[in-house]
Specification:
mainly beta; Thrombin, subunit H; 1 helix; single chain; 6 strands
């Protein structure tokens, strides 16, 4: 069963673990398990399997929220992510580096 998705247009800052720089994207929809992000340009498009650190600045409430995620698909400038906990992120990174 998939989680209910909500439409949003929040601007997010995306850091791809292992790459320099920050990408700016729009969060198009959001659920309890993930989100759809869309870049404004194709400087670098996160690939399936990339790990991300994402910051959302919620200007209406004067706060920001940061979380980690894994890219599960990408098409053109859009890509889907699954949220992951910090412990899961570290485990997945260690598993990949073991090969």
């Amino acid at each position: 069963m998939s989680a209910q998705r909500f439409t949003t247009l929040e601007t997010v800052h995306v850091e791809v673990y292992g790459r320099m720089g920050t990408l700016v994207a729009r969060m198009k929809n959001l659920s309890s398990t993930g989100a759809l992000l869309e870049l404004s340009n194709g400087e670098y498009i996160p690939q399936e399997g990339d790990f991300l650190h994402i910051t959302v600045n919620l200007s209406t409430v004067g706060k920001s929220h940061a979380f980690d995620a894994e890219v599960i698909w990408n098409r053109a400038l859009g890509f889907g992510i699954n949220f992951i906990k910090k412990e899961q992120l570290l485990d997945k990174m260690l598993q990949r580096s073991a090969f």
